[in-house]
Amino acid sequence: MEHLINNRVKNIEISGIRKFFNMVAHVEDMISLTIGQPDFQTPEHVKEAGKQAIDLNFTTYTHNAGLIELRQAAADFYKKKYHIEYSAEHETIITVGASEAIDITFRTILDEGCEVILPGPVYPGYEPIIKLCGATPIYADIRNTDFRMTAELIESLITEKTRCIVLPYPSNPTGVSLTEPELQEIANLLIDKDIFVLADEIYSELVYEQQHVSIAQFLKEKTIVINGLSKSHSMTGWRIGMLFAPEYLTMHILKVHQYNVTCATSISQMAALEALTNGVDDALPMKEEYAIRRDYVFKRLQSMGLEVIKPEGAFYFFIKIPAINITSFDFCMDLVNEAKLAVVPGSAFSEFGEGYFRLSYAYSMDTLKEGLDRLEGYLLSIK
């Protein structure tokens, strides 16, 4: 009966990140620097709010778009942090993680045959959904612009079929973010074009030397902003995302969301309400620690002679594989077999990631030190 399965589903793959993680998970004495999973615990006061929700029997459906109190807190969060005003009632939707927000956005705005421009390398969660919608992903090769998506690159790829530009920043896998002038230039390019922007800002609270700026400041009427609490509040398993867009968009996105999941989990919503009110700055101590780890890892990688750009946000390094005739997958498998160190092959982030590997520093300093010692030993052994 497999021949009856939707061909679009058969033609997409499990995320290369998860595929590699699962492939090496059984190896004993493995140091894994693969997953973008904060090693901090969910803040205690947020966990208590979730427990109280259960004790108070807050276990029923909520409004499809989420509790109005939570939507208001989310809108207030964006106003306070990023200076953009959204209506809690009409322009804010609480989703099951940022992943669902991406899914329902694409399913709302994409038609058969249209095109979506996205940077390459990029997080692998966009392309499969684009293809499931019958649309075509068009990659902008950002390897020669220090992994920065530019207005010039975007302009060179726009056609009459272009429906959406994906701007994920800070970036997974590169850690690169975009500055206000860069975003203003992209907004100026798109201001008179019938093209949407999907701004995936899930790492917005983990930007180090500069303040995060949303392109919605300049292009609000065309932008769908996606965020969530997984990275900022170490709430990956709670699955709470936030989607902001003008009402003419959210009124349709909400329909897809409703038939997809009905609503986000009520218990998680109550925990999220605590996170976005009393815990609005919970990310700050985590960010300080990540910055220390980033600087340590950067110095170690430089001392090994590796080609790498210092991340401006998130918690990843995207590292050029030394000049040896080997694919990123084979390099990473050899690293597993010879050094018992797991990182993610760059090929997991599109063809434009080939020749690189991603290392996550969302791990303790002890784990990072041991992992980098193993990497250094391996590199010395293959010289």
Question: What does the model show?
Answer:
This protein is α/β, with parallel strands linked by helices and 383 residues long. It has helices spanning 7-10, 16-24, 44-55, 68-82, 97-109, 127-132, 151-157, 180-190, 216-219, 247-261, 266-276, 283-303, 328-339, 365-382; strands at residues 31-32, 92-95, 115-120, 136-141, 162-168, 196-200, 223-228, 241-244, 316-320, 341-342, 344-345, 356-360. The strands form three sheets. A seven-stranded mixed beta sheet has the order 2-8-7-6-5-3-4, with helices on both faces. Strands 9-12-11 form a three-stranded antiparallel beta sheet. Strands 1-10 form a two-stranded parallel sheet. Helix 5 (97-109) packs across helix 10 (247-261), helix 7 packs parallel to helix 8 (180-190) and helix 12 packs parallel to helix 14. The longest helix is centred in the C-terminal third of the chain and has 21 residues, at 283-303. The model has no long low-confidence stretch (mean pLDDT 96). This is Aminotransferase. InterPro entries: Aminotransferase_I/II_large (IPR004839), AspAT/PAT-like (IPR050596), NHTrfase_class1_PyrdxlP-BS (IPR004838), PyrdxlP-dep_Trfase (IPR015424), PyrdxlP-dep_Trfase_major (IPR015421), PyrdxlP-dep_Trfase_small (IPR015422). Its EC number is 2.6.1.-. It comes from Mesobacillus stamsii. It is an enzyme of class 2 (transferase).
